[in-house]
Amino acid sequence: MAGLVLTPQILESAYEYLRLTPPFRGWDLPEGDAISFRVLGARDRFGHFRGRHRKAIGANGFSEIAISAGLVRSTELLMATMAHEMIHLYQDETGTARGHHNPQFHKLARRVCACHGFDYESF
């Protein structure tokens, strides 16, 4: 069995599902069509977030959420990784610690893990 095959459409669907659930639904996150979703081949990270304020995103000004097809091979891991990157998106949108795992990130992560049953220690 090959495991989960990721596509940008699957990533967007995972994002939209989570966006409609607590605690994300109270965060006023952008709709999925305002985010660029990319599948990575990377094996050094499960995913990453790049905010629209960064030149690396290009002229479209979209924030990017990318997930590694090399490491994320299950729906459970996809959802946990997407949720992790969505916290970075929220912090970017609100201007509170772009890209860092600061105390606010950890507080939000504990709440997300409690709502969705993710293991905080591996989150």
What does this structure look like?
The chain is of the alpha+beta class. It has a single domain (8-122), classed as Zincin-like (2-Layer Sandwich), CATH 3.30.2010. 37% of the residues lie in helices and 13% in strands. The protein has three helices and three strands. Strands 1-3-2 form a three-stranded mixed β-sheet, covered by helices on one side. Helix 1 crosses helix 2 (75-94) and helix 2 (75-94) runs antiparallel to helix 3. Residues 54-59 have low confidence and may be disordered.
SSE order and pairing:
Blueprint: H1 8-19, E1 35-40, E2 47-50, E3 63-68, H2 75-94, H3 103-116
Parallel strand pairs: 1-3
Antiparallel strand pairs: 2-3
What are the key terms here?
123 residues, alpha+beta, Zincin-like, three-stranded mixed β-sheet, 37% helix, globular
Instruction: Please trace the helix and strand order, writing H or E for each element.
Output: HEEEHH
Give the CATH H-level superfamily: Metalloproteases ("zincins"), catalytic domain
Shape: globular
Reading off the top of the CATH hierarchy, the class is best stated as Alpha Beta
Q: How many helices does DSSP assign?
A: 3
The termini sit apart by 25 Å
